[in-house]
């Protein structure tokens, strides 16, 4: 007997992975949480039957979400991660020696506990004394903490349910206010093949609110289309004054200083998407 997990990534496309074992499954107050041991991608976390992360390719997503904005900031000390209950973004943030505190604002405490139990290579930094776990609404946390953070990262699920508000102009204005002078913001912004309207709208909103904005890409095999986008905004100054010296010392598997150098060089179809009126 063969057991397969399938995610309907669009109404016309799905990805399927053969499963060795279902390690965990539960219904939290917010969503259905499952951890699957797959042949192709190792252990995989799904929420409401949507792939969130896997042992095989998670490093790509987490390194690219975290290191570009943290290296763009001159001296990141206080960092907020919204979502990201699996702990992968926190792990990457703590690779930066200047960081004194990371606040993880996760709405579903059970995601954090399940990751601690079943995804130790991803959640391994959650026990670090510099980490403060804030269970609750990340949008409200941002609104209640003006002028507090050097870097804010939005490691969210797709824009459905509680995550919808994380893709709005009102939220980005709150993020701007929650950043200290010189602050930097970055968020995952979905697939340039399947979410073009969302990417264009988010980029326009961030460009209107922040002094500088940019879009960059990474290849994440388990996400729809494989090509994934991230949008970044700088509260003051430009995005190109990043620290090559700090970048060179990071222990990474996907991110590199060379990749950072060309991060904002986009494929023609993505560049045209951002330029369309």
Order of helices and strands: EEEEEHEHEHHEHEHEHEEHHH
* Subunit organisation of the chains: single chain
* Biggest beta sheet summary: 7 strands, mixed
CATH uppermost class of the largest domain = Alpha Beta
What ranges have pLDDT less than 50 throughout 5 or more consecutive residues? none
Shape: globular
> What is the domain tally?
2
* Residue share in β-strands: 25-35%
User: Would you count the extended β strands for me?
Assistant: 12
Rg calculated over all Cα atoms: 18 Å
Q: Name the CATH superfamily assignment of the largest domain.
A: Vaccinia Virus protein VP39
How would you portray this structure in words?
- There is one protein chain.
- This protein has 277 residues and is an alpha/beta fold.
- It has two domains: 52 residues, Spermidine synthase, tetramerisation domain (Spermidine Synthase, Chain: A, domain 2, Roll); 218 residues, 3-Layer(aba) Sandwich (Rossmann fold).
- A seven-stranded mixed sheet has the order 8-7-6-9-10-12-11, sandwiched between helices. The chain has a five-stranded antiparallel sheet with strand order 1-2-3-4-5.
- Strand 9, helix 6 and strand 10 form a beta-alpha-beta unit.
- The protein is globular, with a radius of gyration of 18 Å.
